[in-house]
Amino acid sequence: MSSAVPQDEQIGRGPTAWHSEAMRRRVRRRYARERRFRALGLLALTIAAGFLAFLLITIVSDGWRGFQRAEVAVEVDFDPARLGLSEADLQGPNAQAMLNRANFRALVRDAASEQYGSATMLSNGAWLSVRDEVRGDPELLGQTKRLWLVAAPYVDLLAKGHIDFDMPPERRGVSAEQISDYRQLRSADAVRLGFNSGFLRKANSTNSELAGVWGAFVGSVLTILVTLAISFPIGVMTAIYLEEYAPKNRVTDIIEVSINNLAAVPSIIFGLLGLAVFLNFFGMPRSAPVVGGLTLALMTLPVIVISARVALQSVPPSIKDAALGIGASRLQVITHHVLPVALPGILTGTIIGISRALGETAPLLLIGMRAFVSDIPGGVTQPATVLPVQIFLWSDEVGRGFVEKTSAAIMVLLAVLLAMNGVAIYLRNKFERRW
Amino acid sequence: MAEAPEETVVHDELKFANDSKMTARDVSVYYGAKKAVDRVSIDVDSHFVTAFIGPSGCGKSTFLRCFNRMNDTIDIARVEGDIQLDGENIYDTRMDVVQLRARVGMVFQKPNPFPKSIYENIAYGPRIHGIADSKSDMDRIVETSLTRAGLWNEVKDRLDESGTALSGGQQQRLCIARAIAVDPEVILMDEPCSALDPIATAKVEELIDELRGRYAIVIVTHNMQQAARVSQRTAFFHLGNLVEYGPTEEIFTNPRADRTRDYITGRFG
């Protein structure tokens, strides 16, 4: 651009009018557009945050009651004659068997009847905790102790204020006698709301006051361990092979497209696949974490492969060159240099995949994990259920007590997922390298 | 480039050299269907620094990467011809490429230390090749390599720090130290100063001069002044051909091929 050329001839027209009215208006419009765009973004964020807050508030306000239970005070006389137990029995080698044979149920029922005229205010399973008392402290035999025992569902509902007294009695769900029983207990100061420790320690039950999530939690852990053990090594090895070894040809392209498509297949399809392959063809046990874990592993595999490939691709080629240039073998390049750098990305992707598997319900329903399981599973081949399925099952229950259990179980599931995401962030920061 | 290449001008002083470390005969490199290097023959002297110069895309870096078979890592690259290291064909199936790359070390355009400690950067090569017998032996190798690379005094108190925390010039000297830690016979340098500032460049050039004689050095550069400063032998490449090869002084003061003269005098490139 020589200065010999006159200004207005440089681009074949007059000088740009930077200060004209039209130009000012254009600038104003540009800023206004920018402001509107930002406001739109803020609005979207507010709506999203609002929904999230609404969800959390609903769940927590319903669910925190699920961690509480009504308890009734009962004076229990641990009479050895009535229990058919002697102190010698409890010292002996067969103490557990003797305890299991003793009739605590009758003992508790009689104790309550003596004090309150009937035992209806107690849960059917209240005697279990009495037996546990003796198991923990054999000295109790022959003594009398005031124990807080799990109350019946109607006491629970009344104590938590869930009953609307203005409703007609037939729709209230609680009879007039039950209300008067409850009021009598209240005046005797024999009712309290205590921490429902059984909720976190026990498995499912048909009685809402005895149902717990521990069984489902253990089922989830076992299932996820199977999923992780299968999908992580296979997924990472697949990704490494595709990224580092596979020739770039048509077959590889087809495999790549197939993996991407698999990641988008609805999860229930994987449930059908699991049903057909693992249950019908291989004859594996129904409702077992091993089958659930395998099914979820099929579902998680493509996610892990894709995220691991992205992580491997993001390793700078200069690092590989450096290692190759010094005479490292291909395997050494991968294990010493590529994997350590890619690890945070691989772990993050894996945990995202596993989190999704942890919250999955549909495929597990198809392979029988919706069964009623009242035992805590002891291994991967025993019948079990998982947290999301447990939530689904409880949301279907008619008993009023299960409403808050459902929300409480959702809180447990959310806590587990949050913890897993926390682990993901921790691992990513721990292994991340900067250059 | 189907027709025969123009005759390479090789100066008489180099024609009968019998002290060559590496020899290339009729080497061609293809990227897919494209021919990047066309029937190049050259002898690399063990006691001198050889510079490859030429405009961008002339195939000098591609040709350099044949000497330690780094082109093997590029799927579509194909190498024809014969390259020997001390009389051994390096493209022979019996040649172990892992050992070859230890014997023929490489320094890259962009400093690429491992994201590990300075010590670990140097110790990695000797460790995978089983060169060090003990911890103290390894310590000695690390110290010697860093000293030879002129970096020891700058980093001896912080060997545990990450190699990536060093400045660009220091990183490049660390990469040179890493290459010499496995005691190579040849060091290939692919535009080692193109990412460095003038002061760091001067240090690296000084280092190259100090390493001369101990290792056969081949350096690719697009900076003609650098070639003139550090090398004793210069090869000029153009469009995949080796145009002229001779003593550096001769090439810069009295080029014999027209294309070399045009390039040296800045008529193209």
- Roughly how many Å apart are the termini of chain B? 20 Å
Proper CATH architecture of chain B = 3-Layer(aba) Sandwich
Provide the helix percentage of chain B. Answer: 25-40%
Helix and strand sequence of chain A:
HEHHHHHEHHHEHHHHHHHHHH
Find the CATH superfamily of chain B: P-loop containing nucleotide triphosphate hydrolases
Taking the sheet with the most strands of chain B, its summary is: 7 strands, mixed
Strand tally of chain B is 11
What is the average of the pLDDT values of chain B?
A: 89
Number of domains of chain B: 1
Q: Helix share of residues of chain A?
A: 55-70%
Gross geometry of chain B: globular
Largest sheet of chain A: 3 strands, antiparallel
Fraction of residues in β-strands of chain A: 5-15%
Structural class of chain B: alpha/beta
Number of strands of chain A: 3
Q: What structural category do the secondary elements of chain A indicate?
A: mainly alpha
User: What is the CATH architecture descriptor of the largest domain in chain A?
Assistant: Orthogonal Bundle
Features of the shown structure:
heterodimer, A: 435 residues, mainly alpha, MetI-like fold, B: 269 residues, alpha/beta, Rossmann fold
Give the topology:
The complex is a heterodimer of chains A (435) and B (269).
Chain A: H1 21-63, E1 68-77, H2 80-83, H3 87-91, H4 95-101, H5 104-116, H6 126-136, E2 144-150, H7 153-159, H8 169-172, H9 176-187, E3 191-195, H10 197-201, H11 214-245, H12 250-262, H13 267-281, H14 289-313, H15 317-325, H16 330-358, H17 362-366, H18 387-395, H19 401-431
Chain B: E1 9-10, H1 12-15, E2 20-31, E3 34-45, E4 49-53, H2 60-64, E5 77-85, E6 88-89, H3 97-103, E7 104-107, H4 118-128, H5 135-148, H6 152-155, H7 168-180, E8 186-190, H8 198-211, E9 216-220, H9 224-230, E10 233-238, E11 241-247, H10 248-253, H11 258-264
Parallel strand pairs in B: 1-11, 4-9, 4-10, 7-8, 8-9
Antiparallel strand pairs in B: 2-3, 2-5, 5-6, 10-11
Helix pairs in contact in B: 4-5, 4-7, 5-7, 7-8
